[in-house]
Design goal:
It contains 9 helices and 17 strands. Strands 2-1-3-4-5 form a 5-stranded parallel sheet, with helices on both faces. The longest helix has 33 residues, at 113-145. The chain is of the alpha+beta class.
């Protein structure tokens, strides 16, 4: 294998001697091996970690390899992991059934172990090459269409400094989207969204979501209904009944800024709690929404609330890429850790531009697309 981060493989077999033999061979070849003596044990492992490939015996008690494969396919986060069967039989029907379950191949157990290792290496190389080609196609498509899910800059609003930071995971356009809509001379709408669970494929859905958001905002304003909760519900209804977006869920934070009164109105759809920094009390407080993810149910239970910013206060909207951190088991979310980092930044009197520099230094630790919007009230309303 090429030098770098070792590829991980989950080996599942009820024969402890054969499992030990495979473990030794793959470890020697540079893999990070994890073993399971049953399908149930394999599923338990997969709840916490996602290997690069799964190699599973077919003939196992209680749950055989085909049943194990069907269980893996039911899980959205697991179904795309390359899966290969081990079998002691050359029964063609069994092999065809396994391939019908989207297994990429099968190996007869009496195949020399070094050949098995070489076959896995070749398959992973092919899978990685295909992924690289897919990622390259996405980048080419982005460049050709010249459509952006994130604006080049934030708008200028009297009394406020509005700024944002966004980075795609591994420089591949993802599911985060940001927009600022000046619907008329009075109202500015701030939007931060995140398409859920589609990895790099999420980019293809961001523009449909953004189109619905923009249309709903403008239609609502033209109809003299600027309620952010109503706007989210209108978007939700369209998405919920759109067959092309079935099972494509998204979180959204939506804020309406009244430039005349400097009043904020907020509604959220399955988003992270916003963080409101009270400059007078030097406190960072959460602002939570009650709405469901867009597209989850026909009624998203959206409500709205007023947010009052005093001079010097700041409001932060951000996606889960900033709270997800890499751990041995994969990744975990730690909202408090990010809030603590933001608190230290604010207490040190750093500007948001300086905070963005800190985030840039942490790019190597990101595990997802990451976005944050900062709204800083600089002047009180007269």
């Amino acid at each position: 294998m090429a030098q770098g981060t070792p590829k991980t493989i989950l080996l599942v077999d009820d024969n402890p001697l054969f499992l030990k033999l495979l473990n030794q061979a793959f470890t020697k070849a540079g893999f990070a091996c994890h073993t399971a003596h049953s399908a149930q044990e394999g599923l338990l492992y997969l709840q916490a970690q996602k290997p690069d490939i799964i190699l599973s015996d077919y003939e196992m008690p209680e749950m055989n390899g085909l049943e194990f494969r069907r269980s893996v396919l039911k899980e959205e986060s697991l179904k795309d992991i390359p899966f290969m069967f081990l079998t002691g039989s050359d029964d063609k029907d069994i092999m065809y059934t396994g391939l019908d379950l989207q297994a990429i191949d099968y190996v007869i157990k009496d195949t020399p172990v070094d050949v098995i290792v070489a076959k896995i290496n070749n398959l992973l190389h092919t899978v990685n090459k295909q992924r690289e080609l897919s990622e390259l196609e996405i980048k080419k498509t982005v460049a050709a269409l010249n459509i952006k899910a994130v604006p080049k800059e934030a708008p200028l609003v009297n009394g406020f400094n509005i700024d944002f930071w966004h980075r795609d995971y591994q420089d591949i356009p993802g599911g985060d989207f940001i927009d600022f809509i000046e619907a008329d001379n009075r109202y500015l709408f701030v939007i931060l969204g995140d398409i859920m669970g589609k990895k790099w494929k999420a980019w293809f859905y961001t523009f449909t979501y953004l189109s619905y958001v923009r249309a709903a905002v403008r239609f609502s304003i033209s109809g003299n209904d600027n309620s952010v909760a109503t706007i989210l519900q209108k978007i939700n209804e369209v998405i919920y009944h759109d067959e092309g977006l079935r099972d494509i869920l998204s979180s959204v934070s939506l804020i309406r800024i009244d430039k005349l009164t400097q009043q904020f109105t907020y509604a959220g759809a399955g988003d992270l709690p916003l963080l409101h920094y009270n400059a007078h009390r030097l406190q960072l407080n959460q602002v939570s929404s009650s709405g469901l993810l867009l597209g989850l149910m026909s009624d998203g239970n959206f409500t709205e609330q007023e947010i009052n910013l005093a001079e010097g206060d700041q409001l932060f909207l951000f996606t889960d890429g900033l709270i997800d951190i890499a751990v041995d088991e994969g990744k975990k979310s730690d909202y408090a850790l990010f809030a603590g980092q933001l608190t230290r930044h604010l207490h040190s009197k750093q500007t948001f531009q300086e905070f963005k520099s800190i985030l840039e230094q942490q790019l190597a630790t990101l595990v997802d697309d990451s976005s944050i919007i900062c709204i800083h009230k600089t002047v009180s309303h007269a």
